[in-house]
Amino acid sequence: MTSVSLTIETPAGPGYATAGPRQDDAVVFELGGAMRGHVHVTGTHHPRYWDQFTAVRACLGPVNAYRATASDEALPRLARSRTGYRGSLTLYRDDLDHPQATVYPMESAAGHAPSQKTAATLTAVLRACAEHVARREDLFVILEASRHRDTPALLRFLAWSVTHHQADAARLEGEARTALPAWRAAVAAWWTAARWFSVCPHPVLLLMLADYPGSLSRTVAVEQWRGPYCRTAATREHEYARRAQAEADSLRAQARTRSRGRRQAPGSAAP
Q1: Where is the composition biased (Basic and acidic residues) (predicted)?
Q2: Residues 6+ apart with CB under 8 A from 125
Q3: Ranges of the chain whose pLDDT falls below 50
Q4: 124 and 221 share one domain
Q5: Residues 30 and 110 in one domain
């Protein structure tokens, strides 16, 4: 693809970004004008759907910041500054097919947040580079290579997620089972204290019947709430586990399809 130079209007003045040759899973831009340095743009999964590689991520620096760390000297900086910055922006489309951008925290090599003007400049450059890659004819190639790159790590994360949510669901279900007996015991104790108070209205008994943290009355209310809350939360954790498992299954299916396509490619060119 022919090299493309972008002109980007920023609060620090016009900036320029020249796209280098496409790497396997990325495009690296060289910056000029208001900024110096590079921006690395690659494919990534949708922020809400771990199995759908439909987003692009732009990182400050010449490398994918999620897999490598650029040296302080290689970080982009304003043309008249010596301070380099780290940060990234993910460009994706929401469920209504509207473009959205998520900017991850930016900071200098020394760990300081940029000024509002600098942050706006960095964001404008990242977004322009990401939007250019999102419009490229070879975007599908970049996204496929990115999916192949990230699938092993995503599968490990999703396997952990399934186990984590299932364990939380089991814990919450156990708490829900203990809530009813605890509620019944607290109600029985409250009525016992109430009967004693009716016979002998002692201040200690009144404290046991009053509503304050740790009292019988508060225990009754808490245990009455805890059962339904834990059951609802357990159902939610089961759903999280099911979703993580479905996304892992989808990633494996996509990997198998890609692998079959590679094996069939040589034969498809035969006469």
Answers
A1: 241-250
A2: 8, 10, 15, 17, 31, 34, 35, 39, 76
A3: 268-271
A4: no
A5: yes
Q: Supply 65's token pair.
A: 């910041």
- 267 occurs within a structural domain: no
Model pLDDT, residue 80: 86
pLDDT, position 9: 94
Integer-rounded Cα Rg, in Å, for the chain is 29
Residue 195 lies in domain? 150-261
CA distance 182 to 226: 10
CA distance 126 to 121: 9
Q: Which long-range CB contacts under 8 A does 196-200 form with residues at least 24 apart?
A: none
38 with 94, same domain: the answer is yes
Among 111, 137, 163, give the residue marking a domain's end: 137
CA distance 237 to 148: 29
Give 200-233 pLDDT, tens digit per residue: 887 777 777 777 787 888 888 888 999 999 999 9
Rounded Cα gap, residues 237 and 86, in angstroms: 35
- pLDDT value of residue 262: 59
The neighbouring-strand residues paired with 57 are: 42, 90
Residue of 125, 53, 138, 54 whose CA lies nearest to 89: 125
Integer angstrom CA distances of residue 210 from 179, 183, 191, 197, 222: 21, 17, 12, 12, 14
Q: How many residues in the chain?
A: 271
Question: Which whole-number Å values give the CA distances from 28 to 8, 10, 76, 244, in the listed order?
Answer: 16, 20, 12, 32
Q: Is residue 142 part of a domain?
A: no
Find the Cα–Cα–Cα–Cα dihedral 110, 115, 116, 120, rounded to 10°: -60
Q: What is the pLDDT of residues 124-136, one digit of tens each?
A: 999 999 999 999 9
Query: What is the torsional sign of CA 112, 118, 123, 129?
Result: negative
